[in-house]
Structure formats: C-alpha cells, structure tokens
Specification:
The chain is mainly alpha-helical. The protein has helices spanning 2-18, 57-70, 112-136, 143-148, 154-177, and strands spanning 28-32, 36-39, 44-46, 84-87, 92-94. The protein starts with a helix and ends with a helix.
C-alpha cells in the first residue's frame, strides 16, 4: 500500500505549497522516504480537549482557516483538536493537510460539483472551529453560538454514518493484532 502513502504525501506537499506564507502554517521542508512530509518544527504541543488557550487563540485560528478558504481549500480535519498546535508563543498552528480538500487542476475548479463540495467542507471547518472553541474557551462564545455548537449539521451525520463502520473494523483488527 505504499502507493497510497506516496499519493497522500504528494497531496499534502501540494497543500503546503498552496498555503506557503500563511501565518500559522509551518513551511514544508520536503518529503521523507517518499511517504512522509517534513515541516518546520513548531515549539509547543497539540491542543487538548478542555485546555485553556490564550484569549486571542481562536481569533488567530479562525484567521488561518479563513485564509485557507480564501485560497480555494478546506482543511477538513478540525474534528480532532490534536491537529491544532498551541505554540509556546500562544499562537495557533495547523499541521496535517493529508485530507485537506482542494481541486488539483485548473480546469473544473469552478464547476458546480466542485464548488458545492468545497463549500460543504468549508462549512464543516467553520462548525468545527466553534466546536473547538466550545471545548477550550466556552466563556468566549455568545449563548446562541454555544447552543448552536451542539447541533451537528447534516453532513456530519452523513460522515459518521459512512465512516463509523470502517473505524470500528480498524479498531477490531488492531485489537486482534495487538
């Protein structure tokens, strides 16, 4: 299955290239053994559920995601707070663009199905931003936004319906191997 690893690494490397210069995204330094990506080291740690982050942290994270969207992409992986780094400087950093969405060719980039799919992924990014804020700084959310963050959009339900069986199967296989 090395071909999948090579394809994912190429996809991630391209995502890093498209986002070069965005504050909060470390520069990509290249590939490692064909299936790995090396990015600049960010001193800090992965965000943890319930962690209290600095006051301006979520505004900075939202600005990073807005710039990703402005460049015609969607991050797609904000579901896991571990993909957000809390730098020692208190700033937000995003890593792991393996499943980021972007259209790889010029032709078709503005075709209806691509635009529709990109918008859905970008909506999901915004939903997960609010959910991350609820998990780390609920005191900064207005009551109506806090309440809305508990209501999953339809596409989150569809995603779970599609991926849950694979997740359970993967866990069962890994438990069996262990």
């Amino acid at each position: 299955l090395r071909w999948i690893g090579r394809w994912l690494a190429r996809h991630e490397e391209t995502a890093f290239a498209r986002l070069a210069g965005v504050e909060g995204i470390p520069p990509c330094l290249g590939r490692w053994e064909g299936t790995g990506i090396i990015h600049a080291f960010i001193p800090g740690h992965a965000m943890q559920k319930g962690e209290r982050v600095p006051d301006d942290f979520h505004a900075r994270l939202a600005a990073i995601v807005a710039e990703i969207h402005r460049r015609g992409m969607a991050y797609v992986d904000l579901e896991k707070c571990e993909n957000v780094l809390v730098g020692d400087d208190g700033y937000a950093y995003l890593i792991d663009f393996q499943i980021a969405f972007y259209w790889p060719w010029r032709w078709g980039e503005n075709a209806w199905p691509v635009r529709w799919l990109r918008r859905r992924f970008q909506e999901a990014d915004r939903y997960h931003l609010v959910k991350l804020q609820r998990r780390t700084r609920p005191d900064q959310l207005p009551p109506e936004q806090l309440a809305a963050s508990y209501h999953r959009p339809w596409y989150v339900h569809v995603h779970r319906w599609l991926t849950r069986p694979f997740t359970l199967l993967r866990r069962a296989v890994l438990d069996r191997i262990d």
